[in-house]
Design a protein that fits this description.
By secondary structure, the chain is α/β, with parallel strands linked by helices. It has helices at residues 2-19, 32-45, 63-75, 85-92, 98-124, 137-142, 163-167, 180-189, 194-197, 217-236, 289-302; strands at 24-28, 49-55, 79-83, 130-132, 170-172, 245-259, 262-275, 283-284, 306-311. It has two domains: 2-197, HUPs (Rossmann fold), CATH 3.40.50.620; 211-311, GMP Synthetase, Chain A, domain 3, CATH 3.30.300.10. Helix content is 43%, strand content 19%. It has a five-stranded parallel β-sheet, sandwiched between helices. Strands 6, 7, 8 and 9 form a four-stranded mixed β-sheet that branches. The chain binds xanthosine-5'-monophosphate (XMP). Xanthosine-5'-monophosphate is lined by residues 102, 155, 157-158, 201, 203-205, 245, 279, 316, 320-322.
Length: 324
């Protein structure tokens, strides 16, 4: 792609110019944006870049392993894998409000990051001057206003806001002018594997905002398992690339069911899938009923703790893509 080849060269020149010989820290979320930003920056400045992957225990099944493998093994990019699952779960216990979840997660990210930046600075006594983020154009505008009217914050999309000021760091945001489809093109231009580049967006707060109400380790396990079955069926049906985002939401509601000749009283799972070009508006995906029925049967048979499955047919607006 000619445009992306040019963008790549220009972005690399801009990064070198901004960073000079300074050290850069980049937070990997497991998503496409931060991964593409990291690979681009690594191409520009090599091992002046260190990536930090904070594993908050709110990722999908097998995601953490995939991220670590891609960066360490495929790209040989220095990567610190921080296992912070227990910390996040402990601090999130009793937190039920969606924005409170985001704030708690954002604050912990900053704490963990700050500690890693200090360690990195201590290695040779040189401070980390730059923080890299995979901020996209829609991130920049959506946190400003979604209604076009007076500025209302619908959801506070944290990247690592707050850290730069506290640590006296400057931001490196090479994707700030791009939309998601352009980031994917750039990722392909950089030779990143399709399985990574073509992946659906995944929110920073992860499964915490797909578990309305209180988050527990047990609920997260149930959700991870059900979500994996749902995505496996979507891939198997060849629908993955037609969908912008698909995921499961574990509702804090139990309903009565019957299994064999016994009564069950288990959680309800909601399935969500939408089409979109940039996440700002979205339509629910029109699966056929046969597909939905198959997914529901598999989930109820295979995932202990769920006895009812529903499909969300709300578009955005008036709904948002995530439930929280
Ligand atoms: P909504 O739910 O606002 O989602 O329609 C639009 C897009 O943003 C993602 N999203 C988030 N991403 N931090 C993120 O990094 C967040 O707090 C957050 N909330 C929503 C969502 O997955 C969708 O792609």
């Amino acid at each position: 792609d000619w445009t992306m080849a040019t963008f790549r060269q220009e972005a690399i020149a801009r990064i070198r110019e901004q960073v000079g010989t300074g050290k850069v820290l980049c937070g990997l979320s497991g998503g496409v944006d931060s991964a593409v930003a990291a690979v681009l920056i690594h191409e520009a400045i090599g091992d002046q870049l260190t990536c930090v992957f904070v594993d908050h225990g709110l990722l999908r099944l097998g995601e953490a392993e995939r991220v670590v493998q891609l960066f360490r093994d495929a790209y040989n990019i220095p990567l610190v894998h921080v296992e912070a699952q227990d910390l996040f779960l402990k601090e999130l216990s009793g937190v039920t409000d969606p924005e409170a979840k985001r704030k708690t997660i954002g604050r912990l990210f900053i704490d963990v990051f700050e500690a890693e930046a200090r360690k990195l600075a201590a290695q040779d006594g040189k401070p980390v001057e730059f923080l890299a983020q995979g901020t996209l154009y829609p991130d920049v505008i959506e946190s400003v206003s979604l209604t076009g009217g007076p500025s209302v914050t619908i959801k506070s999309h944290h990247n690592v806001g707050g850290l730069p000021e506290r640590m006296n760091m400057k931001l490196v945001e090479p994707l700030r002018d791009l939309f998601k489809d352009e980031v994917r093109k750039l990722g392909r231009e950089l030779g990143m594997p399709e399985i990574f580049v073509g992946r659906h967006p995944f929110p920073g707060p992860g499964l915490a905002i797909r578990c309305p109400g209180e988050i527990t380790a047990e609920k997260l396990d149930i959700l991870r398992h059900a979500d994996a079955v749902y995505l496996e069926e979507i891939r198997r049906a060849g629908l993955y690339d037609d969908i912008w985002q698909a995921f499961a939401v574990l509702l804090p509601v139990r309903t009565v069911g019957v299994m064999g000749d016994g009564r069950t009283y288990d959680y309800v799972l909601a399935l969500r899938a939408v089409t979109s070009v940039d996440g700002m508006t979205a339509d629910f995906y029109p699966f056929d009923m046969g597909f939905l029925g198959r997914v529901a049967t598999r989930i109820i048979n295979e995932v202990k703790g769920i006895n009812r499955v529903t499909y969300d047919v709300t578009s955005k607006p008036p709904g948002t893509i995530e439930w929280e």
